[in-house]
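Hey, can you fold this?
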Amino acid sequence: MNAPVLAPAPRLDSHPTLRQPQQRDGAALHSLIAACPPLDLNAMYAYLLLCLHHAQTSVVAEIDGKLVGAITAYIPPEQPDTLFVWQVAVAPQQRGQGLGRRMLRHLLSDCIAPRGLRWMETTISPSNQASSRLFTNFAVQHAAGCTTATLFVADDFGESGHEEERLYKIGPWDRAV
């Protein structure tokens, strides 16, 4: 069975619709992530589960029914006051137009604030400067603190050659929203 191919996305001449993902978005989300290196591509099954189990803490952006962006996130069981952002993906044709920032703001207003969450966390590899800028600028724009620390060292990934992952902790939102 062949995976669906992500259709070329239109430019952001109009604003994309932001909404919670639905189960039917799993395959398109998988294709979007595949088109967004350096993001790690996971099994399609993982994206189906994210769309099913973590829809209320994630967001997708679409134009004319085509997925052009997504943020997958969840609340870690041991940190009920934290939204952990797993992946941020913006279709190559949409980059540089503020879609990542807009999706983060959507999560802040529709997920973090209503649930009284205090923190947003994510991990970013040192070479992913675009993601680092996105999150640090987001913290500054919202007058939130941002700390970083190594969460996973390269050796944690075995022989894969994966870089370390740095944990970015942004908040607390009770003072920044």
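Oh, and this one too while you're at it.
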Amino acid sequence: MELLEKLRHLEENIKILGEIRESTSLSDIYQNKRMEWEVRYGLFESIQIVIDISCKVASEYNLGNPQTYKECVNLLEQHRYLSPELSSRMIAMVGLRNILVHEYVEIDMEKLYGYLEHLHDFTLFTKEMTQQLR
């Protein structure tokens, strides 16, 4: 999948996650495992798209030799593809992705639900990367 296609897919995910945020309360998620799964998977897939784009751009444009997903995002900041503020928030999202995948600790549903209030970070990522890639 090409980079701009991945960005469009991320935009679709953001829209769906926004709809979930608008129609679902934290108590709904506690009471309905399926809703919890939707939030988990939606955030996971969105973060994975950010990672995929970051690592692909770092590789295609020879920005460096990242050893971790966080380093992929960091390279985008270093080479001015992303603003420092957005880069640090995306790096935090990579940490959330690792928790979701590996379940190092039990997921705090309140914190997870709170990430739905930060969907604008994904929107900013899409905007900043689209501007850089055109």
